[in-house]
Amino acid sequence: MALIPHPATSPPFGQSAQISFHRSELAIILSVYGRFVAAGLWRDYGISALRDYAVFSIFRHTAEQPLFRVEKRPGNRLRQGQYSVIGMDGRTLKRGDDLAQVMRIFDRQLMRAV
User: Fold this and answer.
1) For the chain, how many helices (H) and strands (E)?
2) Range 74-87 burial, b when 16+ CB lie within 10 A, else e
3) Considering the entire predicted model, what is its pTM?
């Protein structure tokens, strides 16, 4: 006997069960991450693929809370933009539809640190 998933628990047709970053999106994020690791400011990262959004967390030390979170929320695509950078205190630092443009918020910090 085959089990049929209940319509309330299965994702709608054409949608995946969880949101994740695409390879091209990860390339943009990891290029910025690599520059900060080379400068000695960041040391670790974590990736979470959840049902409604995906998160790339950036850590100074592994045992701490993240310094920054890069979130992808496709549900916000038509409103505020699906990508956002969130600080350690929970404030949204930058938001938009173009990930490369959103990640430029870190350019100022790298210039200040060097």
Assistant:
1) 3, 5
2) eebeeeebbbbbbe
3) 0.77
